[in-house]
Amino acid sequence: SSGINAEYGGAMKAEADKVKDVPIRYYRNTTRGGLMRARTAAAKFATGDIMVYLDSHCEVLPGWLEPLIEPIYRDRTAVTCPIIDTIEWDTMNLLSGKAPMSAIGSFNVLLNYNWYPIPRVEQERRRREHGSHWQISPIRSPAMAGGLFAINREYFHELGEYDTQMNVWGGENTEISLRIWTCGGSLLFTPCSKVGHVFRHGYPYDFQGDHFETVLFNYKRVAKVWMDDDEEFYYKLRPMARNKDVGSVSARSAIRRNLQCRPYEWYVDEIAPNLVMEKDLLHYGQMHSVGYDHYCVDHLGNEMKGHGLSIGTYPCHNPDSAIDNQFMMITNDGIFRTIDRCLSVNHQGVLTLVHCYDYDESELKFKYNVQEKTIVHVQSGRCVDAGPKSMVTSLSVTPCTGEERQQWTFTYNKIH
After folding, report:
1. What is the pLDDT of residues 314-340, one digit of tens each?
2. CB distance 151 to 71 below 8 Å
3. 117 and 102 Cβ atoms separated by less than 8 Å
């Protein structure tokens, strides 16, 4: 046993006891177990029908609870998340907007969590099913951020709780989100439930070792259990994970079999429009410039900064390292993309980063000529051009000339 005091009588309990109208039981692990083990232990003490998990650095807003648990009352396999408002870490000011919820949560092929626009098909479903009240109706989300959610207590246990072989923090939200959707449940954001959360700069705790290595350990456990054939795709993105020992995942794989969960491909096709699978790619990996030796296409950190930003070129990273910024893909359908964004061409002919769904796909179509090593923007008939110098902050499409600065090679190419 990790050791849990029957009831901890410390300073925090003294503060909790000031809330006289809410009965509180307070338990404390006697050894540090990390988020996954702590939450699983807490679930074994819970007795109510519904459990609500909140990070400690949260503050609930009036009326937060009823809309959070109402969908679970209607469907015990629904898992709900509140809308997360920002509490500024340095001032404790609460930033709470009144605009309708505009984002869903998902993860990318690196298994990192991000926010994405609500897909048009989901907005149409909400309008169809909820009429004039659609803007306050629950939103289907591919994944949860992880710190704040409600779940039926019995369903949590039936679903397999958490993977308690994961360490400290990281990846548990991806794992439980995949498990909820593929094993018969649903994950919903509830617009009328609002909770403030302190978004801290850095972590006030250590990761019992290197942060990156701890999270990589957890992510590999997710990939081995849930990604099917795309486990190999994950190793192409994270080559340092391939030989990493993460222990046995047989118990987690048995849960997946026993629950008769759907395949990862179903999740990508039906639930997470931002994701792409390796089978859907023609050319991918680092995109090397022929004209400028040792230079690669790089999104320069612009990928998640906003809509319509550019990509450029940068000295090629070591292919055995994290190459996130330089991992480029052209799909079977001719979509040219980074890990989290797709590429379009603006009116000035500059390649810009846009979201990968709910856009006119004709603007996003590119074709790579393996023999000529050129990437042609189908709509304009122009070629992706590195420009007049080796390192640039934007790439354009220009009339095709066959010059080496318009030639590119990819790490992986699917042979027909």
Report:
1. 999 998 887 899 999 999 999 999 999
2. no
3. yes
